[in-house]
DNA sequence: GTGAAAGCGCTAACAA
DNA sequence: TTGTTAGCGCTTTCAC
C-alpha cells in the first residue's frame, strides 16, 4: 500500500504539502498542486481512511437506523439519504431494527464505539428512549419525523397529520360514511399517531363522528394488516378503509384473498403514505410527502453539522400531496 | 474520552500491560489482570476501535452485499450472518445492490478503501466480474452460492439443483403434466440457473418432455413475476407453476388477483426456496436449504480467515429439504 | 510478567 | 508557500 511517505520520497515534496493538496487546502502553489496530483495518480495513491480518521476523531460513516427496510416508507427515504451521503464521501450504514428498541440502543452505542461521524435514527423507539440514547452519543444527529424536546437537533418532518387527513378525506369525498382506520401502536410510533389524528380530524370536519371501534391498531407490517382484516370484515357497515401505512394495506388485501374478498374492488382503500411505484396503477389512493426528498434534506443537514456548522438548528416540514391515479377509477 | 494513558496514570500499570489484558494475552499475572479490569470498569474505558484498526490494518467491519434485501432468500441468510458476526465483535454492513453490477463494484472498492476486515458478496454479478473485483481487494471473502474458478475461496453452497428438482417433483407427484417454470435471467444468476436445471431434470426423470416455451425468464422480483403471469395465463394447459423464487411467485399471485384468478386455488404453486414464515401456512410448496444456517456457516468461515487460519479452503454443501404444510392440502 | 519505546499513516500547529 | 515536528490511541517488539 503506497503511503504519503512514499510519495514524499518519490517526489521530494513534503507529506504536509501533499496532504494539503489532497484536502484541497488553497494555500498551495498551483504548480506544486499539479505535480502532486501527477504523483498521486502515477503511484495510484489512496489515502488511508482509518489513519485519517484517527487524527480527525471520526470515521466517515453514518448510521441510519430504520424500523423495517421492507417498508417502502423507510426504503424511499433511505434512497435519498444514500444519494447525498455517498456523493459527499460518507458511507451510509443502514440497519434494520425491526422496531426492536433494545437493538436500536445497541446500534447507537456501536456507532459511538466505532466513532461514526453522524447518525440518522428513524427508529421505533419513542421520543424519551431515543433522547436518552442520543444523549450518550456525541456525534451529530438529524431526526426524521420524530418529536424530541430535551435535545436541540435538526429535524425533517413530513406532514403526517396532513397525510392522514387527505387519505381519509379522499374516502369521504367518495361518499363513504363508515371508514375504518388501520393504525399503528400509538405509543411507539409518533408518525402513525399523527396520521391517525389526521384521519379523525377529516371525519369530524365532515360531520362524521369518530367511532373508536373503527380504529384498529397493529404494528405496521403486513402480518398485522392481515390480522386486523379479520376484524374489519366482521363489520358489514365498513365500506372504506384508511390504512395508516402501505404494508398494513397489503396485509388486508392478502387476507381478503383468503376469504374471497377482493379489497380493491369491494372496498375503497387509501393509504397515509406514498405507495411503491409498482402499485401506483392500482386503485389505491394515497397521500404523503416526497420521501426521497426528505431523506436528501436530512442527509444534507447532517453533513452540515458534521462539518461543524454553527447555524441554529432547524426544522423543515414537507407537505403531503395526494395522489390518485384516475385511470383506474373506473374499476370502482 | 478515557484512553489507555489515563488508566496508566491512574493505576500505575503500563499501557502495554493494560493492552495485553484487553486482548487476552495469557502472559499477565492473574492479580494484575484483575486490577486492570477494575480500573477499566471504574473509569468506563472503551478501546478506541479506530486507533486499534490503524495498527492492525483493518477495521472490524464486514461488507455483505445482497441483490435485494426484500428477497427473503437474502434476508434469511443475512440474519444468520449478522448473528455470528456481531457475536464476534464485527459489525456487518449490509448493502442492497439491486443486482446493479456497477454498484457492487463500487461497494467492493469502498470496502478496500475503508479497510474492511472481510466481505461476503451475494451479488448479482456473474462469476467472471466478481472474480475480477475480488482480485483487487486483499481482504478475506467467503462466497455463498457462487461458482468461481480462478480464485481459491471458502464457499458455502445450497443445493439449488436439488431445490429446483424437489419443487418440480412435488407438482409432478400431484399429477401435473404441464408445469410452467418462472426462472431468473440465467446469465446473471447462477442460483437461478441451477434451480432451472433441477426443474428440467425432474421433468425428464418423470417422462415429461421439457418445453422451452414453458420456461419464462425474469429478474426474480415481484414485478417480473407479475409480468410473466400474463404470459402464463395465455396458456390454458398449464396447471402447475414452479417458481424459481418466492418473489416471482408473489408477483404471479398479485397479477392473478387483478384478472380474477386465485392462484393458490386454481393452480398448484411450488417455489424453489423457503418461503417467508408468514406464508408457511399457505398452499405453497417449497424446497430449499436452511438459509440462516448457510449464513452462519459463511460468517464462521470468514472469521476464521480474518484470524488468519491457514487451513485449506473448503466448500460446504447444504442439502435442500422439501417442506409442505399438509394442513392446507385439502384446499386443493 | 512488565515496561519503555517505536511506529501505524495521517493532520495540524508552528516555523521558516 | 512549504517543511518540520508533534501527536492521535493503540499494539508490538525488545529489554529487563
General shape of chain A: elongated
Broad CATH class of the largest domain in chain A:
Alpha Beta
Q: Which protein chains are joined by the largest interface, and how many residues does each one contribute?
A: A-B, 27 and 27 residues
**How many strands, what sense, and barrel or not for the largest sheet of chain A?**
6 strands, mixed
- Helix and strand pattern of chain A: HHHHEHEHEHEEHEHEHEHHEEHEE
Uncertain spans of chain A, ≥5 residues at pLDDT below 50?
326-332
The overall pLDDT of chain A, averaged over residues, is: 90
Report the CATH superfamily of the largest domain in chain A: Response regulator
CATH hierarchy: architecture of the largest domain in chain A: 3-Layer(aba) Sandwich
Output the strand order for the largest sheet of chain A. 7-6-8-9-10-12
Strand content of chain A: 15-25%
Tell me the helix content of chain A.
40-55%
CATH topology of the largest domain in chain A: Rossmann fold
The total tally of domains of chain A equals 3
Structural class of chain A: alpha/beta
What count of helical segments of chain A does DSSP give?
13
- Terminus-to-terminus distance of chain A: 65 Å
What Rg of chain A, in angstroms, do the CA atoms define? 25 Å
Amino acid at each position: 500500500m503506497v503511503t504519503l511517505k512514499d510519495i514524499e520520497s518519490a517526489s521530494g515534496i513534503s507529506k504536509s504539502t501533499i496532504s494539503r493538496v489532497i484536502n484541497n487546502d488553497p494555500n498551495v502553489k498551483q504548480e506544486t498542486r499539479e505535480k502532486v496530483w501527477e504523483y498521486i495518480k502515477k503511484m495510484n495513491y489512496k489515502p488511508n481512511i482509518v489513519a485519517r480518521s484517527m487524527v480527525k476523531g471520526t470515521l466517515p460513516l453514518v448510521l441510519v437506523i430504520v424500523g423495517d427496510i421492507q417498508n417502502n416508507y423507510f426504503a424511499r427515504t433511505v434512497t435519498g439519504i444514500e444519494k447525498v451521503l455517498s456523493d459527499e464521501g460518507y458511507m451510509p450504514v443502514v440497519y434494520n431494527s425491526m422496531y426492536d428498541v433494545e437493538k436500536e440502543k445497541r446500534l447507537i452505542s456501536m456507532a459511538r464505539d466505532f466513532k461514526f461521524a453522524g447518525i440518522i435514527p428513524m427508529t421505533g423507539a419513542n421520543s424519551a428512549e431515543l433522547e436518552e440514547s442520543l444523549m450518550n452519543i456525541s456525534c451529530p444527529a438529524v431526526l426524521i419525523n420524530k418529536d424530541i424536546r430535551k435535545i436541540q437537533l435538526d429535524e425533517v418532518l413530513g406532514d403526517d397529520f396532513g397525510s392522514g387527513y387527505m387519505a381519509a378525506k379522499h374516502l369521504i369525498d367518495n361518499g363513504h360514511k363508515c371508514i375504518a382506520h388501520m393504525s399503528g401502536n400509538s405509543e411507539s410510533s409518533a408518525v402513525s399517531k399523527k396520521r391517525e389524528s389526521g384521519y379523525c380530524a377529516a371525519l369530524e370536519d365532515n360531520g362524521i363522528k369518530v367511532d373508536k371501534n373503527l380504529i384498529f391498531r397493529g404494528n405496521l407490517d403486513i402480518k398485522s394488516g392481515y390480522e386486523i382484516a379479520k376484524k374489519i370484515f366482521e363489520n358489514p357497515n365498513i365500506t372504506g378503509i384508511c390504512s395508516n401505512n402501505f404494508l398494513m394495506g397489503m396485509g388486508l388485501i392478502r387476507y381478503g384473498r383468503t376469504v374471497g374478498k377482493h379489497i380493491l374492488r369491494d372496498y375503497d382503500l387509501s393509504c397515509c403514505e406514498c405507495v411503491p411505484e409498482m402499485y401506483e396503477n392500482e386503485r389505491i389512493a394515497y397521500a404523503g410527502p416526497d420521501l426521497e426528498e426528505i431523506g436528501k434534506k436530512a442527509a444534507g443537514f447532517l453533513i452540515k453539522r458534521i462539518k461543524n456548522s454553527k447555524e441554529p438548528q432547524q426544522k423543515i416540514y414537507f407537505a403531503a400531496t395526494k395522489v390518485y391515479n384516475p385511470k383506474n377509477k373506473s374499476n370502482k
